[in-house]
Amino acid sequence: MPPSPPTATILHRCSGCAAAASLIWRRNAARYTGRTRVSRLLFVADNCGSAPAMEAEALRMAYDESCGSESASPALHRAVFARIAGRLGPRYTLDQDWADATNPIKEGARMCLNELGDLYYALGQLPDALNNYAKTHNYATTSEHILQMWMNAILIRIELGMFTQVPHYVVNAEQTADNNLDRITVAKLQAAAGLAYLATKDYRFAAWKFTETGLELGDNFSKVIAPEDVAVYGGLCALASFDRSELKSKVIDNYYFHHFLELVPEVKGLVNDFFACRYASCMGYLEELKPNLLLDIYMHEHVETLYKEIRHKAIIHYTLPFIYVDLNRVAPEFKTSAPLLEKELAALITENKIQARIDSHNKILYAIRADERNETFRRVLQTCSEFERGVKSILLRANLLKHGHSRREVGL
């Protein structure tokens, strides 16, 4: 049996059939309302082939239903408008007023989800709170709504200890408002990113974020972090990861971060003494801060690592200018004994952070400095030898060619 021709072909062959089909689909469409009716009418419009009158009529009915039904939606109305594509005249245009009138409905749904999130947050059910906050994205009608969703997600992620996603959320929040964020929000985002980088042990990025945090933070982010925390976390991360020029420009000469340091005099003294090479005082401040840091929920697991990095940097800076160093005299500067300092120096030498050797018997560190004069002579002699070898090769080849001893290609 040959396959049946498509509906459009049959309608094209018989106008009477087309009229009958028109009555049938009109009657069928009248049985439905809302989204189902619009979907069926669009299907008719898409499959009536070369019957433009039928297509136009189906699109008109779909348009009227898409903006006149209680279950209609702006998305469905826009889909019908896009299918019409301006072919039915000025009456069948996008009803922007009706589409905008549905915003209060979306706003009501968004507010309900936010209130549910707030309720779950108050009850301590943080995953449920995060789930409801995330759903508000589908009902957001302004960039401020989306920004609020990201800020809530950042708060919950931090409280859950899920720090790896926080920098990504911070970037999304910064891009939401097209760089028109208020200064308080910017400060919150910087502090949140700094905390996330600290938790993931990326101390350099953490230092950057904390030192860029604005004074507008104040007590506006007290659910997450206090201004004193910014000074402590930022100061220690900077000492452990910044070089001297960065420490000078991003910390000591940073007007905004200077005000945070004023809140914690011990950290301010620590930073200034480290930069001024007053290492005995610097070690004293570190010991003074340590008990409180070990009780800090975010800092406690990083104390030993950061202290080790800061101490090693101090030892390297101290020994760098000298040809030799008496460990017995230096040990009190670093609040330790000569044997323990020797072990620290041996580890730094093994890690190739200090170029030196240790006289363990006399407790003296000797710097190993390259003899630049001898090294220069060595390089000159090596260059001369290479040049001489090259000249001899050229002369040999010239003589071979002169006497007809050129290489001949051998055929296979």
TrEMBL record:
One GO cellular component this record assigns the protein to is: COP9 signalosome
Q: Which residues form a coiled coil?
A: none
Q: Where is the PCI domain?
A: 203-372
Output the PROSITE patterns linked to this UniProt entry: PCI
Q: Which domain of life is it from?
A: Eukaryota
Upper lineage ranks? Answer: Eukaryota, Viridiplantae, Streptophyta, Embryophyta, Tracheophyta
Entry protein name? PCI domain-containing protein
Q: Which Pfam families match?
A: PCI, RPN7
Entry's Gene3D superfamilies? 1.25.40.570
Entries under SUPFAM superfamilies matching the protein = TPR-like, Winged helix' DNA-binding domain
